[in-house]
Amino acid sequence: MKTRKIQKYLVSLGLLIFLAAVLIPLYWSLILSFDSAAVSALPPFRLTPHEFTLRNYAFAFTAIPLIRLYFNTVFVTAANTIISVAVAMMCGYAFAKGDFVGKRFWFIFMLAVMMIPFESRLIPLFLQYHSWGLLNTWCPLILGSFSYVFGTFFARQNIGAIPDSLRESAFLDGSGEWRTFLFIIIPLSKPIMSTLGILLILVNWNSYLWPLVTIRSQSLQMLSVGVAMFNAQQNAILFGPRMAVAVISAIPLTIIFLILQKHIVQSIALSGIKQ
After folding, report:
1. pLDDT category, 117, cuts 50, 70, 90?
2. How many other CB atoms sit within 10 Å of the CB of residue 212?
3. Are 32 and 180 spatial neighbours (Cβ–Cβ below 8 Å)?
4. What is the pLDDT of residues 175-209, one digit of tens each?
5. 77: how many CB neighbours lie within 10 A of its CB?
6. Which one of 30, 121, 245, 246 is least enclosed by Cβ atoms within 10 Å?
């Protein structure tokens, strides 16, 4: 018993050290964003700002169009998330419960496509959208959402665990395929949809390379690219304003994760249950 307690305390201590190593830099970034001394030099670490100020945030909003970048990113992220989750759920349902010619072949083909890195497809995609005249628009950022391969795979695995008896009972009661999907499968798949949603929000909110390549107008640009441009164009160190921009850009993701974390835990727990 004593050995087990010692092991438990050691594991807890290790986890606390790891947690501190993760949270202390984040906390210091927050402190620097409110510190008037964090402009041309990096002040020593403190638990509170040397002199509290909001000038770093005011400078951040005047240096780059943060409000416009926020709107662009929220719109594209919301559109991508809604489309991707909807298509992934429909395709996952078809692969899990449907019966059509070439079902196994198309599923394996889909997984094979997922193995191809995006960087190897970037130039062909750029040339494709260039020939369509869609560069410097949000179309290249949104059209790809109709083929969310990982979401389809994830939805298929989880929907496949739903008992077929529920679907058969719905058919006996006169329900069609769409009605069964919308009123039985979707309500049972809320944890899955929440998990896919937060994964997509994280990916789209932090997307940098593809928006940088396809969008030239600053009025259409994403927040991640705007923040990178802000950091690259400043001659002074400007630790405070840079940390202020980082805090502002991270707030939505933090709020969304706190709201959806319960559903994410449920989806992970459900994925380990065998029917």
Report:
1. confident
2. 15
3. no
4. 788 888 888 888 888 888 888 888 888 888 888 88
5. 24
6. 121
Q: Which amino acid is at 102?
A: G
Please enumerate in sequence order all residues whose Cβ is within 8 A of that of 263, keeping only pairs 6 or more positions apart, or say none: 190, 191, 193, 194, 195
Instruction: Please give the structure tokens belonging to residue 258.
Output: 């706190």
Q: At how many degrees (to 10) do helices 239-270 and 223-233 cross?
A: 150
Per-residue model confidence (pLDDT) at position 247: 85
For tokens 């395709």, the residue is 91
Tokens coding 221: 């640009």
Q: How many other CB atoms sit within 10 Å of the CB of residue 209? A: 12
Return the ∠ at Cα 56 (arms to 20 and 51), rounded to 5°.
Answer: 70
Q: How far apart are the C-alpha atoms of 147 and 152, rounded to whole Å?
A: 8
List the domains of the chain with CATH numbers. 2-56 (no CATH), 64-233 (1.10.3720.10)
Residue 35 pairs with which residues in a beta bridge? 52
How distant, in Å, are the alpha carbons of 78, 106, 150, 214 from that of 137?
16, 31, 25, 8
Please tell me the distance from the alpha carbon of residue 97 to that of residue 241, in angstroms, as a whole number. 52
Interatomic CA distance for residues 126 and 170, integer angstroms = 46
Reduce the DSSP state of residue 212 to 3 states and report it: helix
Indicate the SS3 state at residue 68.
helix
The tokens for 235 are 């001659």
